[in-house]
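Lay summary. Proteins are chains of building blocks that fold into shapes, and those shapes determine what they do. In this project we predict the shape from the chain. Here is one chain we studied, written as its sequence of building blocks.
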Amino acid sequence: MKVLAALFVAAAVLIGIEFALGAAHAGDVQLGNPCMSRTFAGDVVQRVVLQGLDHAACRLHTSREELVLSLTSPSHRREEALRAGLLRAVDEAVQRGDIPGVVAGPLKELARKAPIEKLISGGISLADLF
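And here is the predicted shape, written in a compact code that computers can read:
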């Protein structure tokens, strides 16, 4: 019985210490403002896609995460924002030197004409576009 009581007290002390060290806020999520410039780790494709999503989310006055979660339902307004965001992200990648200017033209044409809703729904793959 004393051992059980000691374990209970030890557990309570450990929980108290965790809360004192900030465990109550450990699950809080701080979403980044998509309208603020930020840098992304990863390869060029990841950076361009994340930056394009940020630009689209800013244009739609939402977070990038909410935008991605909303992609399951079709929306003409969202498709326009995604296209505009990707076009801007390609331009910025060229300015940074991540993408050669020669490649920017075909990428921008793909962003303008790719069937985004079909890509999202899985009705077509990127390989089908090339």
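What the prediction tells us: DSSP finds six helices and no strands in the chain.
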